[in-house]
Amino acid sequence: MCPIKAVFFDRDGTLIHEKPGTYLSNPAQVRLYAPVPAALKRLAKAGFHFFIVSNQSGIGRGYFSEKEVNAVHRHLQDLLKPAVIEEIVFCPHAPHQACSCRKPGTLLGEKLIKKYDIDVQHSFMVGDKKADVLFGQKLGLRAVLMTTANGKNHLQKYPDLKPDFIARDMARAASYILRESKRA
Ligand SMILES: [Mg+2]
Ligand SMILES: [Zn+2]
């Protein structure tokens, strides 16, 4: 078996629209960013496998249940078809629970890398927050910061943050990943 190359995506503010300060728990409110389907098609064609790693602290805060999150994810998978997300994993804890699965904690990523034999040197993380960039870089992935939702703020707020690439939309993120993977 050959190791696979993967793109890990954050969910809210990266693949789907995020309303700042709100927690999404209703499948009917899931809205993909427009460039996402075509970008995933290009990446899949180049042989990338897809995963979603999400912090869902709304569960730990008691705002919604794991069951509701799973319903959102089933709907998201439908919207993304024909692209396939191999697995969606999430941290259900609130920040004060100090778990090791909440990004930038790397536990969920480590498990996926082991389970799917992912080649980290040829794989990427795409997200819109500092926690996403740190999660990716700690795992040895190259990290793309999306300026779609929180990215711009986080660049200003955290001057030490050094994403490998900054993308204004998913089409640009995909182009960067495809360029990098040709060089390797
Ligand atoms: Mg996000
Ligand atoms: Zn957790």
Structure described in brief:
The protein has 184 residues and is α/β, with parallel strands linked by helices. Helices cover 38% and strands 16% of the residues.
Fold and architecture overview:
The chain is of the alpha/beta class and 184 residues long. It has one domain (6-183): HAD superfamily/HAD-like (Rossmann fold), CATH 3.40.50.1000. Helices cover 38% and strands 16% of the residues. The chain has 7 helices and 6 strands; from the N terminus they run βαβααβαβαβαβα. Strands 3-2-1-4-5-6 form a 6-stranded parallel sheet, with helices on both faces. Residues 10, 12-14, 127-129, 149 line the site of magnesium ion (MG).
Would you spell out the secondary-structure blueprint of this structure?
Blueprint: E1 6-9, H1 36-45, E2 49-55, H2 57-60, H3 66-80, E3 85-91, H4 107-116, E4 124-127, H5 130-138, E5 142-146, H6 151-157, E6 165-167, H7 170-183
Parallel strand pairs: 1-2, 1-4, 2-3, 4-5, 5-6
Helix pairs in contact: 1-7
This protein binds magnesium ion and zinc ion.
Q: What is the ordering of alpha helices and beta strands?
A: EHEHHEHEHEHEH
Overall mean pLDDT stands at 96
- Cα radius of gyration in angstroms: 15 Å
CATH architecture: 3-Layer(aba) Sandwich
Bound ligands, each once: magnesium ion, zinc ion
How large is the share of residues in beta strands? Answer: 15-25%
Number of discrete helical segments: 7
Q: What distance separates the N and C termini?
A: 20 Å
CATH topology (fold) name:
Rossmann fold
| Largest sheet, strands/sense/barrel | 6 strands, parallel
Question: What class do helices, strands and sheet pairing give?
Answer: alpha/beta
Shape: globular
| CATH homology-level superfamily | HAD superfamily/HAD-like
Overall strand count: 6
Low-confidence segments, given as residue ranges, are none
Percent helix, as a range, is: 25-40%
CATH class: Alpha Beta
How many domains? The number is 1
Placed side by side, the strands forming the largest sheet appear as 3-2-1-4-5-6
